[in-house]
Amino acid sequence: MTSARSARTGPSAAIVAAVCGAEILSVLGYSIIPALLPQFIGDWSLTNTQAGWLAGMVSAGYMLAVVPLVSLTDRQPTRRIYLASSTLGALSNFGMALSDSLLPALGFRAVAGIAMAGLYMPGLQDLTHGVDGAVRARIAAWYTSSFTIGASLSFLFGRVGTLLGWRSAFVLAGILSAAGVFIAWAVMPRTEDASKAREPQPLLEFRPVLANRDALVLIVGYAGGNLGFRRIAAVDCCLSHLLCSGPGSYSRASLEHPGRRCADQFPRRPRRPYWQ
């Protein structure tokens, strides 16, 4: 499968579909802990506080790593960052399968969050680099929806955990994540951006972001939307424990794609690039 792209049309539909499939496989371990949290509480005699740390550590790892890793795409090829992060995510699943207490589990879940930070947005940037207009919007819609689909499908591994044990669920997720690494390695575009070598950007430079009013508006709006979504997700998580699936996540995935398509169809306010 060729990885060639043009600045006008972007990567082929087959490449986009393959990368989206690799992304789904790479995040299949994301929701296993919430789906099986009562089992972990019983097996490891966890308090509610400890259970909260175990369930939330992946988000903590993501939060700490997402800014430096996404900023690193200004210096290093995004394909390299994506592949290294997805490999790390697969290893974190196998590490969880070998864990026998809370402390190592917290470490491996933090690693899983770091891995997610290095594959989610860098993967999107790799697919959409040099692409504009409707094609870019369609690629972004499919890619971001695939992340939600993979995260919600990982709840189904809770069923594997109830039948074969939670270690088997993580082993299976690790195997499928490793398959996602190989798929991404085979199909992700290998084109390099020469401007990264000519003009390396500072790794953590926030002044251009703070000076960009449009970027700040989007950041604040997205943060507020996520705070509201997390409150709804708490109820969704309770339902997920009972159903071993993610009903709210499936609904979110079903809305993300048409929502992004509508954003491309209706006029939007002209925006400046965030780095200006």
Q: Would you kindly provide a brief summary of this structure?
A:
The chain has helices at 13-26, 32-35, 37-44, 48-71, 78-98, 102-128, 133-153, 157-164, 166-187, 194-198, 207-210, 213-243, 247-265.
Broad shape: globular
The CATH superfamily label reads: MFS general substrate transporter like domains
**Main pleated-sheet profile:** none
Q: Indicate how many domains the architecture comprises.
A: 1
Give structural attributes.
disordered C terminus, single chain, 13 helices, 276 residues, 75% helix
Describe this structure in words.
- Helices cover 75% and strands 0% of the residues.
- Helix 1 (13-26) packs antiparallel against helix 9 (166-187) and helix 5 (78-98) packs antiparallel against helix 6.
- Residues 235-256 and 270-276 have low confidence and may be disordered.
- The chain starts with 12 loop residues before the first helix and ends in an 11-residue tail after the last helix.
- The longest helix has 31 residues, at 213-243.
- It has 276 residues and is an all-alpha fold.
- It has helices at residues 13-26, 32-35, 37-44, 48-71, 78-98, 102-128, 133-153, 157-164, 166-187, 194-198, 207-210, 213-243, 247-265.
